[in-house]
Specification:
With 680 residues, the chain is of the alpha+beta class. It has three domains: 188 residues, no CATH class; 59 residues, no CATH class; 234 residues, no CATH class. 26% of the residues lie in helices and 20% in strands. It contains 19 helices and 26 strands. Strands 5, 20, 21, 22, 23, 24, 25 and 26 form an eight-stranded mixed β-sheet that branches. It comes from Micromonospora sonneratiae. InterPro entries: DrmB (IPR047721), MZB (IPR018973). This is DrmB family protein.
Length: 680
Amino acid sequence: MTDVARFVYDAATAVDPLGDAEKEAEKATKHNRAKVGSGRPSSLLYTYGPGSIMDLPQFTIMPTGLDDWDRIWRRRDGIPQIRAPRLREVIARLLRSRDVQLRPHPWQPKKISLSTEGNDLGVPARVFPQWLRCTGCDMLGLLSQFSYTNTHPFRTDLACFEHAKCTGRKGSGSRKGSGSRKATSRTAVPARYLLACVDGHLDEFPYDLWVHHGKACSAAEFPALKMVDRTAGKGASAVIHCESCGQRRPMNEAQGEAGRSKLPNCRGRHPHLDAFEPNRCRNKTRLMLVGASNLWFPATQSIIVMPESQQERTSDLANRIRVALGDKLAKYSDDLDTLRDVLDGKVDVSELSDEQLNEAVAAAMLPPDSAEEQEAWLRDWDPVDLLVPEWRYLQKDPIGLRHEDETSGLTLSKRDRDADLRPEVVRVLAVERLRKVNALVGFTRIDDMDRAGDLPQRLAPLARAPRPAWTVATEDRGEGIFLQLDEQAVAAWEKRILATELWEAHRDAHERNFERRFSETAKRVSADSRLKPPRYWLVHTLAHVLIRQLAMTSGYSAASLSERLYAWQETSNREAAAGLLICTTASDSDGTLGGLVQQSEPARLQRVVASALYRATRCSSDPICAMRQPDKSEDFLHGAACHCCVMASETSCERANRFLDRRLLVSLPGSGVGFFGEID
């Protein structure tokens, strides 16, 4: 075992599926093919990223850490990068890696289905968990006790593990009075229990120690285990049997608070890195199911790419020069002619004047921030800071009827307001083309990232290196509609709402929710600091009712539309904002069809807004929905909102359907606090 960076790691166990396949080919022997499935870029970022568990038809896998992805990238001469300087700078600070790159998933499209280009690319993964159960005889064993089959080149769904000599369960598979049961191959499935801790560690469940109450089997060095489960879907209902010594123990003993005391302490394992924390882990473990929704929460950041300022261009160029030259930067910094020759083919500086190049080199030569400065930035940084440049740019009128920025691809058209459009909507832009970049920073387990006050310490790493050279990102292209609300009207309405009993009830419910669900290991954080202001509830609810209405007129499903909310109060470093962008994007195509932008035309948009507000006044669950308000014991984070009227799919909503209330949007009977008042 060797100590690599900050983890204990055995390099001999590195995941290299394509390399293994090449070794088998050199021996002129046919072997199992490496690829076992596929996934869309968005799902591989938000649902099945490194450290998560991905369900395949016959077994489950875990995408490995980014260190193992480097073996895939090294098969190519050049490694593509996604250019988003503003996002890259934030990601570099969050990962404490000054020169971090944003890279797409290792994939290449095929010209025809039978062609071989791109076969040397793919996301490496390992089978996890590696305890399997035979579906024929209930045998519970490690991966090495089963045979693997994956020989069909175009049917990765047939890849499976099998118990080659399964004799079936007692009392089945043979006639009355016959002899021994006939052995046959039966499919094996993952044993679905795991151990997790709040610091992002994950481990196999120790079935052999569990059934023997932490001791070794008295009858065999390698005991024969079985997992008997006749009531699937009812929690930890399985019973572990030791066929060697006869002991048995149900899994439901590991559930709940009482069960936690019977579980072992965390070993500090990161299976996606194939590594352990050098000093183990002090946390108690929790029983976790393979398909649990709280097994993996991604920590991501995203931006809509806007035209770059001169400062952003200089900073981006400085970073590329520093990465391209490395230690040679100081050697050539005073010789611009030689510097241009060395950078030829690496970084295009041919159109830069000597003054501009000098400025970029000087920026590249600046020393990195100290550890204290990095910690201060992490402590003070607010994700809203990523939205502020977007809001400021969208305040500017496009040049001409249709303005396209060549670098970012952002294409804007200003729309006139229809005479009948609600006066509270003061500005409309058609975003005919946009590019959205999303990057993965890390992940948490058990608690979502917004429940962890000490988030930088709670994030599980994506790579073994303390300062990763890159992280995975996706690039989405699409279209959208931007609406801005009257700031004076919003500010006056918000001041009135803050003094109402309704807002006090929402505030108290949020505090109760926060205290009950906040990570037990997190530092103390004020619940009010995480409560969104009334204007956010307003803009958020408006976005949801517009998504529902646009789904009926734009040609896109509601799940294909998403929101980007600009709703914050004025502070010392940013002006107040109240607006929203409804957009549709796709990560595996060049754009969208234009049906959403078409709805921004004055007459169409007026009808969309009017219909959306009118529908918000009614719900099939009224009057229960319209009167819903948290009382002294409840902690839900919405008011008059349900799946019948306002709530949207998780692909559309950035806040998991929290902070919604129709009463703040329109005046429901008995409320009178709606921003848009009563709707006829």
